[in-house]
Amino acid sequence: MEWIINLLVYLGITPDKLLPIVLVVGAFGYLFNKNLSRNIDKIDKDLVRMNKDLMCVNNATTEIQTIFKGKGERIMHPLTMKPGSPLVMTDYGKRLVDKSGFPKVFEQNKVRIVNSVKSR
């Protein structure tokens, strides 16, 4: 502990100058922690909302797969999607989407879907 005091005295920081420095460092630490906490809370809320949205997509995908399966289609995921960001459909996947009639349904409801996504 004595070496810290010696270092502070060497740097010209005497006990009468120490209180303002401690207050400034403490205030900075408090504000930094508060801001960091607020940003972490915002990120957490965004992740919860994204998870909720992805669950809706997952449920819709499961429903579509169930309908295809009920119609006798066999869906093999490696054949319908390939790596990409976002996932990119293969030619087989595109044929399945076209066969399902989704493009027509999407075109009819495009404005509502876009507005729904924008409102989130």
Overview of this structure, please?
This protein is mainly alpha-helical and 120 residues long. It folds into two domains: 73 residues; 45 residues, no CATH class. Helix content is 81%, strand content 3%. It is built from five helices and two strands; from the N terminus they run H-H-H-E-E-H-H. A two-stranded antiparallel sheet has the order 1-2. A hairpin with a 5-residue loop joins strand 1 and strand 2. The longest helix is centred in the middle third of the chain and has 56 residues. The mean pLDDT is 79.
Topology:
Blueprint: H1 2-10, H2 15-70, H3 77-80, E1 81-82, E2 88-89, H4 91-100, H5 102-119
Antiparallel strand pairs: 1-2
**Strand content bin:** under 5%
Strand order in the largest sheet: 1-2
Rounded to an integer in angstroms, the radius of gyration calculated over CA atoms is 29 Å
Terminal CA distance reads 55 Å
List keywords for this structure.
120 residues; mainly alpha; 2 domains; two-stranded antiparallel ribbon; 81% helix
Summarize the structure.
The protein has 120 residues and is mainly alpha-helical. Helices cover 81% and strands 3% of the residues.
